[in-house]
Design a protein that fits this description.
The chain is of the alpha/beta class and 324 residues long. It has two domains: 4-143 and 264-294, 3-Layer(aba) Sandwich (Rossmann fold); 144-262 and 296-323, Rossmann fold (3-Layer(aba) Sandwich), CATH 3.40.50.2300. It contains 13 helices and twelve strands. The strands form two sheets. It has a seven-stranded mixed β-sheet, with helices on both faces. Strands 2-1-3-4-5 form a five-stranded parallel β-sheet, sandwiched between helices. Helix 3 (78-87) packs across helix 4. It starts with a helix and ends with a strand. 44% of the residues are buried.
């Protein structure tokens, strides 16, 4: 017969085996969040990450703490902010976009880094391969080079008979982004006006150039800097009456005309699974880089009406979301 003392001891051992590893930590795990933008412009991404962590059992303030560092749209601040997170001894750093990835990678060769990036991280030299990234970086990567033609096709459907498209790029973006966009436009028989900006003060002159050159539409290429300044871009597109397309829904929710690309909420939610596995002992270099699970077409009808643009019904029917 088993004694009561033996039974209780065995029960306690069994219970310990099923308690999640992160619940047994003496102190909360520390996540560094290195952001290109501000707290206000990054709210959707932050909430998606928090929701993903909660779903995996992490409780902010109890089992995890998140250290935020905001660049406020100034990429020159990223190296010092990354170094500050290293000094804070965080357990993992999460970032988005090449400038933040570069800053974090240069700041530490050992602290795991989880990223979201909209172009190929292998081509940019951040990782060795998608299957086995190696080093201390892993995360999620979109296929911008593969979806740019689709973005332009959708834009020409929304703006029938458009012949010239202005393409806006931040100078920190990889040259391959613009070359892919130009090649896609050529395939579709579109003339291209290339616009490159470095800082917010140059935005208005870029829009003036697009309008005076007879551009019938505008495509904004993916950029953490431009994303942080999206309200200004949306305001200028409205003022200069340029139908504009973007990669992420964040722009359309804030008043942009349309977007086609991966779901930012989905990407940041899935980022949580990498953080979870790393905090439980996984090596980031062994975690395969994931591609987006889905792409979404979002159209803002209110913005279309303000531009005097009648979006074809067939296109509206194909949209994943229409904002009225």
């Amino acid at each position: 017969m088993i004694s009561r003392r033996t039974f209780v001891a065995a029960a306690l051992v069994g219970a310990a085996r099923v308690i999640p590893a992160h619940a047994q930590r003496a102190t909360p795990a520390r996540i560094g969040f290195l952001a290109n933008g501000s707290e206000a412009t990054s709210t959707p991404a932050v909430e998606a990450l928090r929701r993903g962590l909660r779903d995996l059992g992490w409780i902010e303030g109890r089992t995890i703490d998140i250290e935020f560092r905001w660049a406020e749209g100034r990429t020159d601040r990223l190296p010092e902010l990354a170094a500050d997170l290293v000094r804070a001894k965080v357990d993992v750093i999460v970032v988005s976009g090449p400038p933040a990835m570069t800053a974090a990678q240069r700041a530490t060769p050992t602290i795991p880094i989880v990223f979201v990036v909209l172009i190929d991280p292998v081509a940019l030299g951040f990782v060795r391969s998608l299957a086995r990234p190696g080093g201390n970086m892993t995360g999620l990567a979109s296929q911008f080079e593969e979806i740019i033609t689709k973005q332009l096709q959708l834009l020409t459907e929304a703006v029938p008979n458009v012949a010239r498209v202005a393409i806006l790029q931040h100078t920190s973006a990889a040259p391959s982004i613009m070359s892919s966009a130009q090649a896609a436009a050529k395939t579709l028989g579109l003339e291209v006006l290339t616009l490159r900006v470095t800082r917010e003060a140059e935005f208005e002159s870029a829009f003036k150039s697009a309008k005076s050159a007879g551009s019938g539409a505008l495509l904004v290429l993916p950029s953490p800097y431009l994303g942080a300044q999206r309200l200004r871009l949306i305001e200028l597109a409205a003022r200069y009456r340029l139908p504009a397309s973007y990669e992420l829904r964040l722009y359309v929710d804030d008043g942009g005309l349309m977007s086609y690309g991966p779901s930012a909420a989905d990407l940041y939610g899935r980022m949580a699974s990498y953080v979870d596995r790393i905090l439980k002992g996984a090596n980031p270099g062994d975690l395969a880089i994931e591609r987006p699970a889905r792409f979404e077409l979002v159209i803002n009808q209110k913005t279309a009406r303000a531009l005097g643009l009648a979006i074809p019904k067939a296109l509206l029917n194909r949209a994943d979301a229409v904002i009225e």
